[in-house]
Structures are given as C-alpha cells and as structure tokens.
Amino acid sequence: MSTPPADVTTAVAAANDDFTAARAELDTLVRIPSISSDAAYTPAVDACAIAVADLMRESGLEDVRELRVDGGHPYVVGEWMHAPDAPTVLLYAHHDVQPPGYVERWTSDPFEPREANGRLFGRGTADDKAGVIAHVTAVRAWLRTAGELPCNVKVMVEGEEEIGSPGLAPFLAAYASELRSDVLVLADAGNWSVGTPGLTYSLRGLVSVDVVVRGTDSPLHSGMAGGAVPDPVLALARMLASLVDEHGDAAFDGCWDDHEPPSAEERARIAELPTDVEGLRRAWGMHDGAQLAGDPAIPLFERLWVRPAVTVIGIDGHPIAGSANQIVAEAAARVSVRVGRGQDPARLGEALCAHLRARAPFGLEVDTTVLDVVPAWHCDPTGWAFDAAERALVAGFGVAPVRMGVGGTIPFVGPFADTFGGIPALLLGPADPGSRIHGEDESLHLGDFRSLIASEVTILDEIGRHEPAESAGAR
C-alpha cells in the first residue's frame, strides 16, 4: 500500500487528537432520549436535532438547517460545496433512537453514557449517534488542517429512521435537488467483528402488522365462563404459532412468494466467510441449551441476510401485575417480518394479514393493520467506490473489510440511491455483533469508533480523486 498524501495523514492525526472531544460530543447526544416512536419524547427528538445542527455548524459545515415534511420529526442537513471539479458525497446518519425497553434490565441508566472494558454503554451509542459524530469529526479534521475538503460534502442526519422513515418519500420529492450527490456514505451499518470492519451490500426490508383478536364485550369470570367462552390470548397464541415451521422459519401463506435467493456467486462468497457460531451466541447473549432457529441446511448468513424472518415484537392481553381470574375480552400482537430479497413488502403484509384472519379459532373477531412497508435492498459490491471504501477502511482499521450483508433495515438507502440513478451506496458503521443495538445495554466499541472516524477522513480523500462524471450513476 502506498504512503498516503501528507494532507490525509495530517487530517487523520487531527481527528485522532480530537477523539476526546468527539467522545464528549457523543456523550451529550446519548443523554438526549430522542425516541421517535413515542410522541411523549417529541421535544427530546427536537432537542437532539438542534444539538446535531450545532455540531454541524461548529464543524465548519454551511447552510445547516432543519427540514420537515408532513409534521414529521426533523432531518438536519448541511453542506460544504467548494470543490467544483470534485464529486459530491452525502454522509448519512440518524439521531433518533429506539425506546430503552425494560430500563431495570440495563446495567446503568440507558441515557447516561457509561464506559467499561473499552466500550461505551447507552441507548444510541452504536445506533446511530456514533455515526453522527464520525461525520462531523471527519469534516472538522479536514477543515482544521487543510482548510478545505477533498470533495463536496452534504450531510443529512435523519430523525425518523427508527420508525421506518415514514416521511422519506415526500422528503425526497421535496428536497431531491438539494441532496443530489454522486455517492452515498452511510454510517448506520456494522462491522464484521471488533477490529474487523464491514462493508455492507445487502439489507432486508421490513413490514409490520398489528392483529387484534376479540371475543366478548368485556372480561368474564374464568370460573363462570371458562370452558365455554374461548380465550382470545390462547387463540392469538395459536395464530402466531402458525406463522413459522418447526425450524422457526417463516411459514405463513405466501411468505416465500417472489423471494429471490442468492446467486451462485454470492453463495460462494458467503461460504468463504468464517462462521463463528459460538462467538455469535456469546455476542447475542444466548442461554446455554437454546438452539439457533432456521433450517440448519441453509447457511447461517443466508438465513440472517437474505431470507424473510418473523418476530412478535409486542403482545397484549393483560399484564401479570393486577391480573385476575378472568377471560380477557381481547388480545393483540404486533408482528414484524424482515422482508427477504426481491419480495414486495406490501404484498407480504397483506399475505400475513390474510393468513392470520383465516386461522382465527372459534369464529373470533380479528382486525389486522399493515404498518411499516420497506423493501429489501442490495447491490453489487464492486466498482471504484467499493474499492475506495476498502482502501479507506484498511487505512483506518489496519485490516481489509468483510463485504457482508446485514439482516436489519435502513429505509433511506434504496430510495436515495435510486433517486439519483443508482449511485454507489457505501454502508459503514460503528456497531459490532456485541453492540446489542435495539436491546438492553447497547454499547459501542471505542477502539472501532476511533478507527471508523479515521476511515471516514480517508474516504473523503478517496472519493475526491474521482471525476464527478465518473462517479455519477456508477454501480
């Protein structure tokens, strides 16, 4: 590998010297409970957007502003556009977070950052406030040392990612001209393992369905009516159990229609990846004796990255606290399906609803509602932009990245890339398998965070070496 230019070396050194300040800025963001799914936290989401905007201005970005559509949560955008002969990159992250869940199960306050064993714990540390800080730190390092950026940069930090980006389509319709770019760099994905970066080329989609089962107008005494009046909770349990087969794979009617399996080339690439099942079990916190789900004949990473998967993410009957000997009047669940490659999420949601309605026992009343609808996304992880990203990640981490899939969903990627003719989308990120994003004790590996920032500094230089016409629309 050739020696990097002095300006890159200087900018990386500046970012490294700035790491303590970057860590403090991350702490500040983590302390803001920017939970986009709960209206009670709307003021916190707004406050987080303001804090992000301040960081962007302080980094040297210009024309920083908050943008909203249809009364949704704020996007924060800014730019530096003074390199007329260089490409334009959009740096994406999001400032909203998931709810903490059972707060008592966290080792410490989820919104008070805590460092232990080289990791920073707190909601949003890895998903995705570290991505926000990586962007502003990389921009700041270049402007403080070189006085300019090696390419044009636009930064967009979303406030609705954790609720499926419901305002994304109207947002892009309204602001596409302001966001036009040659390449997307997104810091909301993950690394292969601690110390080994990932370069993500595949995401699953998402569709969610609410199902409500009703049997009576009000709860009934279980001694007086039990044995004659069906229990909506048990009925719902039977319906939910029918969604998967004996392996835990999706099995509802229509769930495999239009699914696109990996190509032979991709299967070969997946087969070459090391599969440390025990390491993953430890990272996921699986209990001894608990078995992995999914057909064991299907490679693990194909199950995680490409195939549909069903999860019940919420269920209501009556809380155990305050429960009584009664048959409840209704039970409800929220079912989430990670949409497989090639599948139409709207069709999949309707198929799930039809399956549930057809399997309601005892003629119980069933209502279903389709919620999030996001398709899967993937691209060919080759070409100049991926090569540039690989060089930057090698420079930052010291090892080559793994070109990998992620089983999660990032709604922004596909629509944005398609809006500008299929521009390259480079998905990097601060998380690792042990980060427990969306779970209790979410955490960020601080060494990898430092390496990600160094990689971002370098990737701006790598992108700046290409002519705009060469990068536009490349794949």
Describe this structure in words.
The protein is α+β, with helices and mostly antiparallel strands and 475 residues long. The chain has 2 domains: 6-203 and 376-471, 3-Layer(aba) Sandwich (Aminopeptidase); 206-261 and 306-373, 2-Layer Sandwich (Alpha-Beta Plaits). 36% of the residues lie in helices and 21% in strands. It is built from 15 helices and 18 strands. The protein has a 6-stranded mixed beta sheet, sandwiched between helices. Strand 1 (62-67) and strand 2 form a beta hairpin. The longest helix is centred in the first third of the chain and has 21 residues, at 125-145.
- Biggest sheet, in brief? 6 strands, mixed
CATH first level of the largest domain: which class?
A: Alpha Beta
Output the CATH homologous superfamily of the largest domain: Zn peptidases
Number of domains as seen in the coordinates: 2
CATH architecture of the largest domain: 3-Layer(aba) Sandwich
**Total beta-strand segments:** 18
Helix count from the secondary structure assignment: 15
Global outline: globular
Please give a handful of descriptors for the protein shown.
475 residues; alpha+beta; Aminopeptidase; Alpha-Beta Plaits; 2 domains; six-stranded mixed sheet; four-stranded antiparallel sheet; 18 strands; 21% strand; globular; disordered C terminus
Quick overview of this protein structure:
The protein is built from 15 helices and 18 strands. By secondary structure, the protein is an alpha+beta fold.
